Amino acid sequence: MDNHCRTMLCTAGLLVFLLTVAAEAGLGPGNSSSLCPEAKECLQFDTICKTSGYEVRHYGPSKWVSTDAEALFMEVGTTVAFRRLFNYITGANSDGAIIDMTAPVLVKIPAEKRLKPTVYTLSFLLPSAYQENPPIPTNEKVYFTDMPDMTVYVRSYGGWMLSLTSRLHSHLLKKDLNSVQASYNSTFHYGAGYNSPRRLFHRHNEVWYVTEGAPVCATPPSPPSETPPTSASP
């Protein structure tokens, strides 16, 4: 079987898989996922494939509470945004409800604009009890986002999600995707954080790029090794 046929069969298989799992994603107990050891509920996903450079996941539709903050550095914007959303889940809503924290926390990061203020969108995943009818925020800068069914390319990393680390790992993921000619939305990416700020070690973060068309599951080529120069014979 030639490479063209194998590619067509792989693509057809992925499309069938996506149709099969389209209605299966949602929220589940945090302790059922190694990614969410601290949250009561965690966003569930189906893994389509894993390569040495990235993972491909499918997520079903979900509702989030969001807010925007403009800043030169991501850390400044997300700090302001986090405070607004934390106030919402701790009672700044029409019901005065205390809403459990979930995972992950998402930040939508537009394509890089050097030394210019950027609008960052921070989102908390609403628990399953509030997915259908969440209480209205009292802060007009807080709003709801209906995240559509989507498939994403994912790169994971440890430590803290900072401007520098986010930029580095988004660049590395883009490099891998470009090397296998994968199509994705390059106008923004998501940063996903799974841990409380109180957790100092063994943290887990991710970069997501939304796929365009059928996802590509291929191992990025290794960089060519440099052959040491041979010394001249005496």
Write the layout of secondary structure elements.
Layout: H1 3-21, E1 27-29, E2 41-43, E3 46-50, E4 55-59, E5 62-71, H2 74-89, E6 102-103, E7 105-110, E8 118-125, E9 142-147, E10 150-157, H3 163-179, E11 188-193, E12 205-210
Parallel strand pairs: 2-6
Antiparallel strand pairs: 1-2, 3-4, 4-10, 5-8, 5-9, 7-8, 7-11, 10-12, 11-12
Structure, explained:
This protein has 234 residues and is of the alpha+beta class. 22% of the residues lie in helices and 29% in strands. The protein is built from 3 helices and 12 strands; from the N terminus they run H-E-E-E-E-E-H-E-E-E-E-E-H-E-E. The longest helix is centred in the first third of the chain and has 19 residues. The N terminus is likely disordered.
Give the topology string: H per helix, E per strand.
Answer: HEEEEEHEEEEEHEE
- pLDDT < 50 stretches: 1-25
Helix content: 10-25%
Kindly report how far apart the N and C termini lie.
52 Å
Identify the notable features of this structure and list them briefly.
single chain, 234 residues, alpha+beta, nine-stranded antiparallel sheet, three-stranded mixed sheet, 12 strands, 22% helix
State the gist of this model.
With 234 residues, the chain is an alpha+beta fold. It contains 3 helices and 12 strands.
